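Deliverable D4.2, example record:
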Amino acid sequence: MFNTKSDTYHIFFWKSIPISFLRREIGDGFSSEKKYIYDEARIREAAESGMTILDCQYDDLSIRMHMPKSEQEEAAKYFCNEEEVNQEILKLCEKYNLFCNISDDRIKKALRNEPDWQQGLEDMVKAYRGYSSLFSFHIKDEPGTREEIDQIARIKNYLAQLCPETESYVNLLPGNGAKYEADVEYFIEQVRPAIISYDRYYFCKRKLEPQPLLSSDEFISERLFTQIDGVYEKFDAGGYFENMEIIHRQSLKHNIPWMTTVLLTQHAHYRELTEGELRYEVFTALAYGATRMSYYTYWTYHTVNFLYTNGMIERDGSRTRYYYIVQNINRELKTVGPYIKKSRSSGVYHIGQETDNVVYWPENGAEFIKSIYASRLIAGFFDDQTVLLVNKDYRNHQRISFRLSDRYQASQGNESILLRLDKVTGKWLRCYAYQGQYFLDLQPGDGELLRVERV
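Output generated by the structure prediction step:
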C-alpha cells in the first residue's frame, strides 16, 4: 500500500538524478519523433537509499550550471519536455512508494509575474494532481528579500486554492540574530507554509597559508588533512545551534513543523564528513524536534565554481560509500523519526560549552531526569514522556549516566520503568538502573530515544 503523506517520516535529497541518467532515447532511426525509455532502476535505487521524496529537478539552467564548462554546451542541447518527464517520474515513483517535489517552469514564470501566470499554474496543477505520488510544488530556494517572500505568498495562496492537498515547498536561508528571526517570522505569517525548511552547514575547512611544517602527531589528531593543493585545517562554524534555536522557537510559536538540510557533499569551504559528523547533523536536529530531513546532495554534481565530492551517487552513476552510510542512518531515522514527528518539543538542554546562545542543563534537572553526567550532550524532551539524548562529540564514543527525578523513583509501589528504542528493530527495550543510576553508551554523534512509563 502506498505510504500516506502524514504517516511517514519524510527524507528528501537535493539534486537527485540528472535527466541523462533517468531516460535514454529509443527509435528506429526513421521517425523524427523522439521517444524515450525511463530507467526504473534509478528510481528503485533512490527509494532503497531511504529517500521518500524525490527532488524533481532535471535539465533546467541550474542543472546545466552544475557541470564543468566543457560539458555545458552539450548539456544545453538536451530537449526536456518538463511536464512529460515529471509525469513519467510520478508514475514510476508510485510504483516504488516515493513522493515527488515537482519543479516546473510555470512556477518560475508566476514568480516573475508574467502575463497569464494564473492560467499557467492552473494548467500545471491539472497536469499533475491525478498522481498519488505528488507531494509538493517546489516554489523557491533561499529567498533573500521580503519582496521575494511576498511573491512566494502570492503563488502559494493561488496554488492552495487550486490544489489544497499539495504542499508548496520553500527553503529558507540560514542566519542568526534578531533581524533574521524577524524575517523568518515574516515568512511564516505571509506564506503560512506546511513546514519551515532551512539549511545550515556547520563542518568547514580552511587552507593554511603559508604551508606549515607538520609533525605526524598533528595529522593523527584529525584536525589537519591534505588535498592536492595543500594542507587544510578542519573547523566548525559558529551559529549552528543558534540558527536551530530560532527555527525551533518559531516552529513552536506558530505551531508549524520544521525541517533542515544535512550537509553531505564536500564543496566550497565545506569539508569531507565522517559518519559521526553526519549522525551529529541528523540527531541534533531530531533533538530539537525536526519532523522531516533532507540531505545536500544525492548526486555528486560539479559546478563552474565548486568541485563537489562525496555525494551518495558519483557523477558516473556509481554508488559511493556514502550511499551505504546514509542508507543505514536513514533506516534508524525512519524508526526514531515517527516518534519525534507525532510529539511536541518541550525543552532542549545542552551539556558542554557552546559559543552559540543555547539553554544549558538546569542545576535541578529537567522533566523526568534529575541529573546527567556527561561531557558533551543534548537532551531533547518531548511531551509524550520521551527524551532524545545526543552525543555532541562526533569523534568519540561517550558513556553517560543519569538519574530519574524523585517522583519517578520506586515509592510505595508507585514505580516507573525506563525504555530505550532499539533503532534497528523498532522495539522498546527496558533499561535497568544500578543503585538508582542508568548508564548509556552513545556512539560518535549518535542519539538514543528513551521513554519513561508508570507501572
